[in-house]
Design goal:
This protein is mostly helical. It is built from eight helices and no strands.
């Protein structure tokens, strides 16, 4: 009996007993980025409203609201007066940012200018408070001066440039804040001052600094300094 030889070759591949499992899908975040920003905005608005209402009703404060107000007073001193307004405005800006062109947008330079102005104000308030109260810690405990933020700024400036230098730096910060907020350069400010002095000496009508949003007035004062 003869047997036929099968041609040499690879045998049939064995099928894997395990079926291919699909790759696990990444877990979806609880909230999207826009939703997180909206949540932060609503939280800031609520905190601002709670702070204002608590400050207006000192006899009806609870432990939570009283502690929150103490934190703000220790942090910003006399500058706590505008802290709720700043929180509320930031919250409103975050919530209304989706309206695009229908909602006025602040330029980054103006935002930076307002921030520098607030820091300069806290430093100035701290110097004013220290003129009547020698103990800086006592000012912080009383919620006076510039609070912990103003105290930290003045301590840093005193350590770096001394008391006189701190006053000069604060003046420069105020100048920078004005320039950023009004979108003015040093050359424009110097030119406006020179024209003002020249107008007073000659008795001529002095130029007016015209806001950029006053377009009708801008058309009639083409040579005026526009902010």
């Amino acid at each position: 009996m003869t047997f036929e030889k099968k041609p040499a070759g690879k045998g049939p591949q064995k099928r894997s007993s395990r079926a291919k499992q699909p790759a696990p899908q990444p877990a979806k975040p609880l909230l999207s980025t826009d939703q997180w920003i909206d949540l932060i905005g609503y939280t800031l608005i609520a905190l601002a409203a709670l702070t204002i209402l608590s400050a207006l009703s000192p006899g009806g404060q609870g432990d939570l609201t009283s502690g929150w107000l103490n934190i703000l007073k220790r942090s910003f001193g006399w500058g706590v007066v505008v802290a709720p307004a700043i929180m509320g405005l930031i919250g409103i800006y975050l919530v209304l940012r989706r309206f695009g062109d229908r909602f006025p947008r602040l330029a980054p330079g103006r935002i930076a200018g307002l921030t520098v102005a607030y820091l300069a104000a806290l430093g100035t308030l701290q110097l004013i408070g220290m003129a009547s109260e020698q103990s800086a810690q006592a000012l912080v405990d009383e919620g006076a001066g510039g609070g912990l933020v103003g105290l930290g700024l003045i301590n840093a400036l005193n350590g770096a440039v001394g008391t006189a230098g701190a006053v000069i730096v604060l003046f420069v910060l105020w100048l920078i804040a004005f320039m950023l907020t009004a979108s003015l350069s040093v050359a424009q400010i110097v030119d406006a001052v020179q024209r003002h002095v020249a107008a007073r000496q000659t008795g001529a009508t002095e130029d007016v600094i015209v806001p950029s949003w006053d377009r009708e007035r801008n058309r009639g004062h083409a040579d005026d300094l526009v902010i």
